[in-house]
Every structure is written in C-alpha cells, then in structure tokens.
What we know:
The protein has 703 residues and is an alpha/beta fold.
Amino acid sequence: xxxxxxxxxxxxxxxxxxxxxxxxxxxxxxxxxxxxxxxxxxxxxxxxxxxxxxxxxxxxxxxxxxxxxxxxxxxxxxxxxxxxxxxxxxxxxxxxxxxxxxxxxxxxxxxxxxxxxxxxxxxxxxxxxxxxxxxxxxxxxxxxxxxxxxxxxxxxxxxxxxxxxxxxxxxxxxxxxxxxxxxxxxxxxxxxxxxxxxxxxxxxxxxxxxxxxxxxxxxxxxxxxxxxxxxxxxxxxxxxxxxxxxxxxxxxxxxxxxxxxxxxxxxxxxxxxxxxxxxxxxxxxxxxxxxxxxxxxxxxxxxxxxxxxxxxxxxxxxxxxxxxxxxxxxxxxxxxxxxxxxxxxxxxxxxxxxxxxxxxxxxxxxxxxxxxxxxxxxxxxxxxxxxxxxxxxxxxxxxxxxxxxxxxxxxxxxxxxxxxxxxxxxxxxxxxxxxxxxxxxxxxxxxxxxxxxxxxxxxxxxxxxxxxxxxxxxxxxxxxxxxxxxxxxxxxxxxxxxxxxxxxxxxxxxxxxxxxxxxxxxxxxxxxxxxxxxxxxxxxxxxxxxxxxxxxxxxxxxxxxxxxxxxxxxxxxxxxxxxxxxxxxxxxxxxxxxxxxxxxxxxxxxxxxxxxxxxxxxxxxxxxxxxxxxxxxxxxxxxxxxxxxxxxxxxxxxxxxxxxxxxxxxxxxxxxxxxxxxxxxxxxxxxxxxxxxxxxxxxxxxx
Length: 703
C-alpha cells in the first residue's frame, strides 16, 4: 500500500499506521491515503475494529501548516470531511496516541470513539498560536468530551497537556504501560471493547456542554478578557465557536466552526502568525554553515559577572542541567548575585512551576568563584560585565591567558564592537557575541553576533546550545547595536523628538500600544533605564554629534537622575507599579524646545505612528541591505521576542509589507519634506526600500 500509511490485519483488527515523517502532518496526500485505508477497513467484513497509530511511534503533530491559505488546505478530502466520515464508520476506532497529538492530530483522535495514550504523550490544540481555531471538529467535539469551560480554556491557552492530565480530563480512556507497549495494549483494549459489545461511538459525557454554564457565561467571559485580547481576532472566533457548541446540534456546530475557521485562515493576523512560525524554523539556517559540521562539546560553562544579567544567564544553563561557574571580583557581589538566583528560583517554587527538589538540584549546578583559575576548564565563557569597551577588552585579555584552547569566548554586549573585543585575544576565531535580553532567564531571544573571524564551528555550536537552553537564536553581523538596539535608536529618537514638538509621552505610547505593542517606546525606556539608554547613546556619540537636539530630552532626564522605574520617575512618574503622567516632563520639553527653537504644535496619532514606526522599519531594511541581518524574517523575530512587537502583526518588516512598501516610502519622504532640518537630517529612506518600490516589489528582500 502507499507508504504514507501502513495497513495490516491482526485477527479482527485493522491496524492503520500513519507514516509521513517527520511528524505525520495531515496534508492532502496523507488525508487521501488515510481515508482510503479506513474505507478499506470499513468495507472488510473480517475487520471489526480499527486501531489508528503512528507507524514510527509519533501519532500526529497536526495539519500541514504550509497548506494554510492555499487551495490545498481545503482540497478533498479536507480534514473536517475526513474526520466526519471516520465518526460514521460503524466499527470502533481506537486512537493509539504516541508522543504527540497536536492540532489536527488531536482532532483526528477526537473523531475516534476511543483513545489510549502512552505515558509520555503530549496533546494540545495550539491553533490559537497561528491565529486560527481548531477547524476539524475540535471546538465541537472537545466540549462534548470534557465540558465547555475546560475545552475553552484548553483551546485558548494553546498549551500542551501531559498524558496523566489528559487522562484525568477524560481525553484518554486509558494509558499504556509505556511507548513500547502502546500498540499491543491498544489492540488488547480494542478486543475488550468488542467483547463488551461497545458501540462504535460511545455516548458523549457532555451531550449538552452548555447545560452547566451560567446563563451569561459567554458574555461575561468576553467582557473579562477583551482588554487582554486587544485586537486579536482568533480568541473571539474561538469563543464564538464554543458558544455554537453549546447552543447548536453537533452537525450544525461543525458547519459554524468551518465558517469561523475560514474567517480566521483568511485574516492578516493568521498570515502574520504563520509567517512567524516559518521564520523561527528558517532562523537556524545559516548560509555557509554545513548542518553536518562537527560541534564543540559544551559540558561546563562560566559566566563573568554575578549581576542581574550574569545571574540570569547562569540560570539558563543550570535549568538545562549544565554546570556553571560564576566569577566576580568581590565576595559580597558574588554572594549577592547567587542569592538573587536562589530567590528567583524560590519565586518559581511559590508559583508551582518548580519543586523544592528541583531548586536544590539547579543551585547545586551553580558555583561561585573569585579566581579566574577556576574557569580554566570551561568550554564556554560568557562575559557579562559593565557595558564599556575598555572593561570588556580587559576581561577578554585575561580569558585569553586563562582559558583552555578551543574554549568559546562570548560577550554579552548589547551594542559594542565584537570585532574590537575579539582583536585583543590571540584566538579571535573563538570569540562570538551572545546578547541575552533582560531578564535573561525569562526572555526567549538570543542575538548571536558573528564577528569577522568567528569560526563556523563556533557559530554552529552556539546556535545548537541556544536551542538546548530554550532560546530562539537569531544571527546578526557586527554593527553598533546589532539588529535590535540599532533599530531601537531611530524609534526612540523620534519618540523623544515628538515630545519636544508638542506630543505628550502618554500620547506617543498610546499610539504604539494602540496597534498592540506590549508597551510604548517611552515606557520601555523607563523600564530598561534612562541611564542605560544614555550610556548606549554616548558610546555612539559620533553618529549624532552634529545635532544638538538629538535625544536631548533623554539626556536631560538622565542629568536630573530620572532613570525611569527604578528611581520612580523618567518619562513618566511611578507609584509602585502604577505609571502616571508627569507634568514636569511637559514643562521640561517646553523649555528645551524653546532653547532649541523647535516650534511646538498639536500632533496627531497618524504622524506619531509614521515617524516612530517608519523609522524603525527603515533601519531594519538598511540592516538587511548591509548584510547585518540574514533575512527580513530574522529582524521580525528579534522585535517580536526582544521588544514586544505583536506577533499577530508579524514583526515590523512583515507589518511594512502589509501596509505597503510604497506607503512606507511615501511617509518617510513626506516627513523629510515637512520637518525642516530634522527631516532632512534623519528621514533618509534606505536605498533598498527605494529599489524595492521602484521595482514594484511587495516583499522585503535583497536584490
């Protein structure tokens, strides 16, 4: 039979094994072959029950995402139609779920009358992460199996459940003893069902899933979550689908689900989220790096600096079971840093995310030292000291003397020249930038900065290691600020300038949060530290020395000791966690504008949007043209995972494509013409943007 499906008989059972490596994605070819196999079993009088399983152990990770948005997504047999047919086969279907049943894979299991899982299996409906809803019966069959509220929470979270939790909820009828016994015990379970005369489809535990809900449940749920959902469409469509499950018969509910799914699939938000999905997979592919390259072994790691960043970096490795030595100059700083790490773990214990035993295991992997000799055997050393080139260079001179040959020497600099750091060593091929984002134990993004002489083996090793510690690595070349912070510079510059010209900080940030950014740029600067941003700017002083108005408001806030949240005032005033407008900032802006002879005027939301975001986009396009970023989608990943750009907009460059590159260019040129000297100085469109628009291109790519 077709190798996409393995078919064999075992007495009265037909065993149908999905065999489309690597994850049995339910694309049209597999759907067609599976339907044919099930029809064969249904028509065979010798077959009394059917066991569906993954031929290589894994059940199915879901639909073929590459089909979404194309005719193949709904090509016959479409997944909803296939699963509806399976529910109407008059023989028991048993899903033997190994390893994974996600999305459409779980919907396939739900269409079967019975389910048995291996103890390590994980199941879930993650469609919400792609701006979709389960579209093959999941929103209608799941609430009838586990209840409407449990189904709603599971679908909206997109989280995976382990086998024991799934069994407790009723998603699995039973669990096998282990993965090796799964198929055998599924066959035994099928024979027991036949011996008991069990029906092909058992009665639903919740035939009327809305019966136990309060009358106003959906209206209240919607009102409670609207603010958190912001402009996201998918959660609202999920809620509508679950509401349909509670008020419509199953057949009508399935039709309603299909309508809602098609609406989600055609949305720009889902297109953006699918862009992000594929961008993450593409980010690990680096031209010139052979996938078969021999990697260096990383068994021991050292971190230089026990501050907030150093401690957070160390936690990543301890979490992955890798021993870490943390080096500091002073004993009190070392103990304070290790104490902060323990407190972070204790918070996780209090929240139920970690056991006390796990806390102690991780702390046992952390060792503090004041002596460089204690890190001589480290396979990877990450420097996380003060952000000043001379300081970092001195650390690397010492590492060059102390560390063993072949050790990877990494700097956590957020903006400095990695080539200049590597140049003070005798082994520049072993030096790389690993820019963790704060808090380093939480933030997923890791900018991997390839210096001029970084060896391919070093780059490949750090990319693999990044994924091992749960990070999303994105490769950047060397320039001031790399990808993220270089783009932050014009974004922040325009925000500060707008306040000088008449906008308020709250007005600027409201425009940005209005398109669903996690926070506005001025709030973000307050959170990161006005002092930190000032010092970063000063390291690049030559780039703006000829403009006395450049970030002048930020400079004055720094001079006044208004460093942001940590001092209780910055662009805003803070009372605890509450952010408040501060009239003193407006007064300061008025004074500075007068000194600089900058006219103040009313500024509308459209101008704020275009000046901040078009400058952000323009810098990203320039980075791509310079080869600092490998691809536009890498830039999107940096800003989604490091700076809170909404994933459902796809990142700043995908957002530009959705707006239209011609519109972005026209907006930049309009600002150049209307903003006088400031416009002429700073609103210079990237040459690549001009070339793209002139050529009629709609995608951002180099040519």
